[in-house]
Design a protein that fits this description.
- This protein is an alpha/beta fold and about 240 residues long.
- It contains seven helices and ten strands.
- The protein folds into two domains: about 120 residues, Periplasmic binding protein-like II (D-Maltodextrin-Binding Protein, domain 2, 3-Layer(aba) Sandwich), CATH 3.40.190.10; about 100 residues, Periplasmic binding protein-like II (D-Maltodextrin-Binding Protein, domain 2, 3-Layer(aba) Sandwich), CATH 3.40.190.
- The N and C termini lie far apart (about 60 Å).
- This is ABC transporter substrate-binding protein.
Length: about 240
């Protein structure tokens, strides 16, 4: 009888819905994650995460927060994950990784009338580069000795560029996207060069069971094979603020 009960328990805990619910955090970063007219969190990355949770029968809730807080919660709170998180060597041991859900180019943007020459990333060493606190681009450039000026909200940086308070802005452009954020500075702030390429993931707290991570990664691969992820990408292909 004990054997039967043990078998039933193991079967139950292996079912998709048996794992503890996930608390998933994200930032406001259109068109990746944003709120629609009803207040619901939507967006290209959000729709992929929701499809993944539905495919595996995982209970979850999504909360939109400032990036630094969202990122820190995934590091410190059990059963918590954060998207879209750049997977870098510096972050590798901090999380369990599900993905990639997307790819991104890291670009340096500047004023259209910038007075300096920028042929390689080393040409930027003498310049002031705007970043966001806790962002992977800030970590990458800071660790390599660049002069970074970090702010709490990344979309403050184009205004700082226009006011000549910084010389460059380190921007992440998702696969297929054209411009970050609102377009009131279109034509005034422009891309100058690509300095790195990364893949982005759903990054989960180390408490999330390996079995659950493996299940989510397997389901994400299915969503990629059956075209679900591509359909979501096409849905936001011509999105505008």
């Amino acid at each position: 009888m004990r054997f039967i009960f043990l078998t039933l328990f193991l079967l139950a805990t292996s079912l998709p819905g048996a794992a503890a619910p996930l608390h998933i955090t994200t930032e406001h970063s259109p068109p990746s994650s944003m709120r629609d007219a009803s207040g619901a969190i939507v967006g290209r990355a959000t729709d992929k995460i929701r499809a993944l949770m539905a495919r595996t029968g995982t209970e979850y809730r999504i909360e939109q927060l400032p990036w630094k807080r969202a990122f820190m919660m995934a590091q410190t709170q059990q059963q918590t994950c954060v998207y879209s998180t750049s997977r870098t060597p510096e972050r590798e041991a901090l999380f369990k990784w599900i993905g990639p859900t997307d790819e991104a180019e890291w670009q340096l943007w500047g004023r259209a009338d910038h007075p300096f020459t920028l042929n390689t990333i080393d040409d930027a060493r003498k310049l002031r580069i705007g970043t966001a606190i806790g962002d992977a681009r800030d970590e990458y450039l800071r660790s390599r000795g660049f002069n970074v000026d970090a702010v709490s909200s990344d979309l403050v940086n184009p205004q700082k560029l226009l006011l000549n308070r910084i010389d460059l802005w380190a921007v992440a452009i998702r696969n297929g996207a054209s411009m970050p954020g609102p377009y009131d500075w279109s034509g005034k702030v422009v891309p100058l060069m690509v300095f790195h390429r990364v893949q982005v993931y759903l990054a989960c707290n180390l408490s999330v069971p390996d079995q659950q991570v493996e299940q989510l990664n397997a389901a994400l691969a299915e969503l990629r094979r059956d075209g679900t992820l591509a359909r979501i990408d096409r849905k936001y292909e011509h999105w505008q603020q």
